[in-house]
Design goal:
CATH architecture of the largest domain: Orthogonal Bundle
Structural class: mainly alpha
Strand order of the largest sheet: 2-1-5-4-3
Order of helices and strands: HHHEEHEEEHHHHHHH
Radius of gyration: 53 Å
Strand content: 5-15%
């Protein structure tokens, strides 16, 4: 009982260890996937944010530049480019929600016409980008509006610029890159928080799945282990699993059926083994009594040789003793016949048990084939999930291209001014649809990734079940070998019983001879000497036969003891 409890505790410990190893592996995989996603997404987010800011600054520069063109046309270049007028027009021009952003005006010679810092007005511009624009204007080339990136006193800045058609002035909208990309840091933090929450939820779901998967298999494994330890008691632990159905239910039902059939066979074998053991004990006792009786006959014959005076009495005693021997021989024959019948039944039961084990091996093989089919189906599911993932990648690429096209359309609409406003609305809607398509594609891709992870876990679980089925096959083979040994012992018992039967038959014939001799001694007293010699010879022969019977009875007793010892290992 203590050994069974200890083995059960070890099995439970192994099951829990395996479950948490799987959970740890799941956590590592989720962490790696999330880390890789953040590592790949952050540069892309940064690039998209940079493009958006550049586009926004470009639009601001062009829009405000054209507004300045209108002012120049309406009021003249001196009035429009005066400090007060420029301050009135551009003091509030900056990228929204960016404190480092501002706008300033430079003339075609590089002199600062307007700057938020008053001390810089009237002085040459220090910006390398603007200096390059001025150099191009001096060479007679009018630069096109654009956005440039440059370093200014150790800081990276963005500059969206607009040059009028005559190259008389340049409008620049400036902003610090660090502040412009501060939203990327916020997005990464939000994504990291969401990833932590997602990983926690995935771990909770994985824990529940592992617990639900391993608990029934652990119970089935424990019952199979009990069968391997020859414990055939029905505990009822697998009855609930049978009602659940599916492969686990089939496995539990098979184990219960095997346990019941083996228990029935072992019960019958134990009963017959006990009968054989008791019969061998009785035969051994009868052989000892017979040997003692033969000794008495020998003593009587010796007394007959000593004197004729006691011959009649000795002959009467011998007659009674021979009758006792005859009864004992008859009883021995009956017991031997019973033993033959019992051993025949044991042999039949052993053959049935061997056939049952073969059927169990066939059932186990069918279960193994079912596990292989599950394994193949899981791999097919994994391949389908990979195809879904490839399709989502294509959809994401199309959505990104659509988004880029809508952005270009918005830019062109902005350039077109009032005439392109309707086209800008359509482009904005297309951009929203592209973003929604991209988000939906990302969600489906996450689901496909989870499906692939679940499929991989299912493949690992099926591998574990296959190992368990292989172990069960080994246990069944060991049980078959043990039943074969029992069959061999039964066959040896049958041979010994047949030998005993032959010896008792000879003993019966010898008994008849002894009776004839004793009657002859009673009828013919004159032939004492000759009759005594004949009787002595018969007694010697009977003594040899009895010794053979005693030896065979001892062998039968030892064989029955071995069978009893083997059967005691089973707990029914």
């Amino acid at each position: 009982m203590r050994r069974a409890k200890k083995e059960k505790k070890q099995k439970q410990t192994q099951g829990i260890s395996l479950k948490y190893k799987g959970l740890l592996l799941t956590a590592v995989l989720i962490f790696v996937v999330i880390g890789a996603t953040l590592a790949l997404a952050t540069p892309q987010i940064k690039s998209n944010m940079t493009d958006t800011i550049h586009s926004y600054m470009y639009d601001m520069a062009v829009t405000n530049g054209r507004s300045l063109d209108v002012e120049v046309s309406a009021h003249g270049i001196r009035v429009a480019l005066s400090e007060n007028k420029l301050r009135q027009l551009f003091s509030n021009v900056k990228v929204k929600d960016m404190e480092s952003s501002y706008a300033y005006i430079v003339d075609g010679n590089g002199t600062m016409l307007y700057h938020p810092i008053t001390d810089k007005i009237g002085k040459p511009v220090e910006n390398a980008v603007v200096k390059d624009l001025v150099a191009q204007i001096e060479k007679g080339r009018i630069p096109k509006s654009d956005v440039a990136t440059y370093d200014f006193r150790g800081q990276t800045k963005y500059a969206g610029y607009y040059v009028d058609e005559d190259g008389q002035y340049i409008l620049i909208v400036s902003a610090d890159e660090r502040e412009a990309l501060s939203g990327v840091t916020k997005i990464v933090r939000i994504m990291s928080g969401a990833a932590v929450i997602c990983e926690f939820l995935c771990l909770v779901i994985a824990f529940l799945c592992f617990h639900r998967l391993f608990d029934p298999l652990k119970k089935i494994t424990y019952q199979v282990e009990r069968l391997g330890n020859l414990d055939l008691k029905h505990t009822g632990e697998l009855d609930k699993l049978v009602r659940t159905g599916g492969e686990v239910g089939m496995m539990a039902r098979s184990v219960i059926e095997v346990q019941g059939k083996i228990s029935e066979v072992v019960t019958e074998l134990k009963t017959e083994s006990e009968h054989l053991f008791h019969s061998s004990n009785q035969l051994n006792s009868n052989a000892a009594v017979t040997a003692e009786t033969i000794g008495q006959i020998s003593y009587a014959v010796h007394d007959m040789a000593e004197g004729a005076s006691s011959q009649a009495n000795d002959t009467q005693t011998a007659t009674e003793s021979v009758i006792v021997i005859g009864n004992m021989v008859d009883e021995t024959n009956e017991e031997v016949a019973k033993l033959r019948e019992n051993v025949e039944v044991m042999k039949t039961s052993g053959e049935e048990a061997e056939q049952t084990l073969k059927e169990l091996e066939e059932i186990n093989e069918e279960a193994k084939q079912s596990i292989v089919e599950i394994y193949n189906q899981t791999n097919t599911t994994n391949e389908s999930a990979q195809k879904i993932k490839d399709a989502i990648t294509l959809i994401t690429s199309i959505a990104e291209e659509t988004n880029l096209l809508s952005l270009n359309a918005s830019i062109e609409a902005a350039r077109a001014g009032e005439q392109g406003r309707g086209f800008a609305v359509v482009a904005s809607q297309i951009q929203k649809l592209a973003e929604q398509s991209n988000e939906s594609a990302m969600q489906v891709q996450q689901i496909a990734n989870m499906l692939m992870q679940d499929s991989d876990q299912a493949v690992q679980i099926v591998d574990r079940v296959k190992e368990i089925m292989d172990t069960q096959n080994v246990k069944m083979n060991v049980t078959g070998e043990m039943f074969q040994k029992v069959q061999d012992e039964i066959q040896a018992s049958m041979e010994s019983i047949n030998t005993i039967y032959e010896k008792t038959d000879k003993m019966d014939h010898a008994k008849n001879d002894v009776v004839d001799v004793v009657h002859s001694l009673t009828a013919i007293a004159e032939e004492n000497a000759a009759g005594t010699e004949e009787t002595s010879a018969s007694v010697t022969e009977v003594n040899d036969i009895v010794e053979d019977i005693s030896n065979n009875a001892k062998q039968l007793h030892d064989a029955a003891q071995k069978i009893e010892d083997h059967m005691s290992k089973f707990e029914v």
